[in-house]
Amino acid sequence: MDEYLFPPPPVASLPVLAESRRFPVGRIFCVGRNYAAHAAEMGAEVDREAPFYFLKSAHAVLHSGETLPYPPGTGDLHHEIELAVAIGAPAFRIPAAQAEAAIWGYGSALDMTRRDLQARAKAKQRPWDLGKNFEGGAVLSPLTRAADFRPEGQRIHLEVNAAVRQDSVISDMVWSIGELISDLSHYYHLAPGDLILTGTPAGVGAVVAGDRLSGSVQGLAAVELTIGAAE
Q1: pLDDT tens-digit profile of 119-161?
Q2: Assessment of whether the complete model's pTM goes beyond 0.85
Q3: Judging by DSSP bridges, how do beta strands 67-69 and 223-228 pair with one another?
Q4: Residue 76 class from Cβ within 10 Å (0-12 exposed, 13-18 middle, 19+ buried)?
Q5: Alpha helices in the chain (DSSP H)
Q6: With the C-alpha atoms ordered 48, 172, 157, 63, is the resulting torsion angle positive or negative?
Q7: What residue segments make up the domains of the chain, in order of their start?
Q8: Rounded distance, CA 183 to CA 171, Å?
Q9: pLDDT class of 46 with cuts at 50, 70, 90
Q10: Molecular function terms in GO for this entry (predicted)?
Q11: Structural contact between residues 128 and 93, judged by C-beta atoms closer than 8 angstroms
Q12: What is the CATH number of domain 13-228?
């Protein structure tokens, strides 16, 4: 007798550069307003007391190079290029100085956003889920093992139709990777398979059907996306 009433969804996973085995994805934690210039362009300020987060589900995972149909319910789809941190060891209530031991690897990511829905939620002081957590809303590159990449001041940039939209360095992040992992570990039992999208620099903007996006964190695999017609 089958254990389930219907087949469970397949495990979301990401390819790993130069390896055959894949990285299974659990939770996706996203950091809000982690670049001061981006916070300013959105009419907000950075909360210097503590970072804040929103989540995307594994259903949001889309592989680099695929096409995202223009999502339903929005007329203002935005791009946000980010550094993704992949967790590979349990972490609970750890100090920032020990956070590196929990990191499995890194990748480039796009946090796609239904900006009009997010703005509507903000205006009503409601959660951002409709604006942020939707199918294909987390576009991810193949991962690079932590041993092969050390985050310092690398360039992070995004082009839309070969025109640069976002261009910064990851050292401009308000909260460091270690600080983010430590902070999250005081609220969650972080586990292998978790991802942290560490925030986006200034320059976010709208995309439309037919646009081609390409971006990366220097030294990591690029993340590429085509915006398709609405379904």
Answers
A1: 999 999 999 999 999 999 999 999 999 999 999 999 999 999 9
A2: yes
A3: parallel
A4: middle
A5: 36-41, 115-123, 129-132, 177-184
A6: negative
A7: 13-228
A8: 18
A9: confident
A10: acetylpyruvate hydrolase activity; metal ion binding
A11: no
A12: 3.90.850.10
